[in-house]
Inverse folding.
């Protein structure tokens, strides 16, 4: 029986061997990283080592990295009224793009009436003119824009956005969870004030995330209060093994990034060409800059829920969009924001590649698609 093909890397990734090794070593330790004895100091060494790795990877200082339980928690921590930049007053409202992850659309700790939504184009890219208009309408704002969309893979013009936001006295938060390890990402280069990350998207363990804050940003208030961990920004004993695995996965992902990105882009293009061979197939955001590993497509009459099951029965794991929406039979809010009809949005299927994806995996996915397309599109 042939092995299964995994093409749902944007939902989660396999655990890298480097992360597994770091975690197993950490599980041998018995100390609490807040304890001052030798056992505690050894645990602290692992936490701070991982903090330094992530900080270096994204152009930050280690003291400005806050470890959290998930990317969702990191987003909630970042979306905080009262944040201040090096020059300017506190932000008083929140502006988010219409294609953000649900944890950002929820608004963090901002009141509902202080949250505005930024339109996107048909390609899924932020409408910068609309952003400018919204910034003119009120006091300084925290703007939250994801670097790369988890469904379409579309990349946002983060550096240009940062210039606009800073010119209006605001701050920019970037959800970089899908970007890290797939494209170069440096908060100083792009001008982000806050950025969020998640370990399990780059080969680390599930249950570990991080918020990175640029130097000079102040006013961050903890969501979890209690102990003084993470420099009083996130209470609770650190997940030492998970954090160690996070650091190891970051190091491995960045070392392999140039080669992996080029190889995945080649495989993605071949996958798209094969998908388009079926009459009427549409690949979303194909006219925008995208992640090298992501394909979101549909075809007339295709029902995503049925297609995902069909792919699964053929031994290929794919998704109908964000894994955070699993089990919800509803149109993609991303495609709806891009202006697509709900019937189109309900038929979108996502295939996402990773570092171990092979050409034969693409062959098997296309074989499954040809078989399913001939069957499902007649239903």
């Amino acid at each position: 029986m042939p092995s299964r093909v995994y093409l749902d890397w944007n939902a989660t990734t396999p655990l890298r061997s480097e992360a597994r090794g770091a975690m197993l070593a950490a599980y041998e330790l018995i100390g609490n990283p807040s304890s001052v004895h030798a056992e505690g100091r050894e645990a602290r060494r692992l936490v701070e080592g991982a903090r330094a790795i992530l900080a270096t990877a994204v152009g930050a200082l280690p003291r400005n990295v806050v470890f959290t339980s998930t990317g969702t928690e990191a987003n909630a921590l970042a979306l905080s009224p009262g944040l201040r930049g090096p020059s300017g007053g506190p932000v008083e409202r929140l502006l988010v793009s219409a294609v953000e992850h649900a944890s950002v659309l929820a608004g963090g700790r901002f009141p509902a009436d202080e949250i505005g939504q930024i339109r996107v184009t048909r390609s899924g890219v932020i409408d910068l003119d609309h952003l400018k208009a919204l910034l003119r309408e009120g006091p300084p704002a925290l703007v939250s824009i994801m670097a790369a969309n988890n469904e379409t893979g579309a990349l946002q013009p983060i550096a240009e956005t940062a210039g606009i936001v800073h010119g209006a006295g605001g701050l920019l938060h970037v959800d970089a969870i899908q970007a890290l390890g797939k494209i170069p990402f440096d908060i100083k280069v792009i001008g982000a004030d806050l950025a969020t990350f998640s370990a399990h998207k780059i080969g680390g363990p599930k249950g570990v995330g991080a918020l990175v804050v640029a130097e000079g940003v102040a006013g961050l208030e903890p969501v979890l209060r209690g102990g003084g961990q993470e420099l009083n920004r996130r209470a609770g004993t650190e997940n030492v093994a998970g954090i160690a695995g996070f650091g190891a996965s970051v190091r491995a992902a960045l070392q392999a990034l140039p080669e992996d990105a080029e190889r995945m882009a080649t495989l993605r293009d071949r996958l798209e060409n094969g998908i388009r061979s079926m009459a009427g197939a549409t690949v979303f955001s194909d006219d925008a800059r995208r992640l090298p590993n992501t394909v979101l497509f549909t075809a007339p009459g295709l029902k995503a829920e049925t297609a995902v099951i069909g792919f699964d029965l053929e031994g290929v794991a794919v998704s109908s969009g964000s894994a955070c929406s699993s089990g919800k039979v509803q149109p993609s809010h991303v495609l709806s924001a891009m202006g697509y009809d709900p019937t189109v949005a309900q038929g979108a299927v996502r295939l996402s590649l990773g570092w171990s994806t092979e050409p034969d995996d693409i062959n098997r996915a296309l074989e499954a698609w040809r078989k399913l397309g001939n069957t499902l599109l007649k239903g």
User: Anything to note?
Assistant: The longest helix spans residues 240-276. The CA atoms of residues 112 and 241 lie 37 Å apart.
